[in-house]
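Researcher: I'd like a structural prediction for the single chain below. Treat it as a standalone chain; there are no partners to consider.
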Amino acid sequence: MRWVLCIAACLAGPAAADTVVALRSLQARTVIAAGDVTLKPGTVAGAATRLEDVIGRETLVAVFKDRPVFAQNAGAPTLVERNQIVPLIFTSGTLLISAEGRALGRGGEGDLIRIMNTASRATVTGMVMPDGSVSVRPNR
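Model: Treating it as a single chain, here is the predicted structure.
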């Protein structure tokens, strides 16, 4: 009986997978909503396979109607825009230094961006935090 099940499983072929496709054309920097994407049968290499992987994320490039949404083309929503004034936070143990900085790039939560300290004109790299501030780590 076991060999019958094994043969049936082998003849069934690979399991079908779905691909996330755009329901409308999405410009770059668009935050993807539930009504912007759907699942279509079939697989495309590199394309997202679950709606949860792209909903709430921001398109990094334009995605055209009925085209697959590739996972690498959807990133964290932008919290910091280029030239935006942001709090620049440096922490090391109990030491906390806060300054004002100008973003030299744009980024979402967890992205590393360059920031120019407006007081000293020094350029540092920091990570965008969930509240939109930028955390600078000590050099090691």
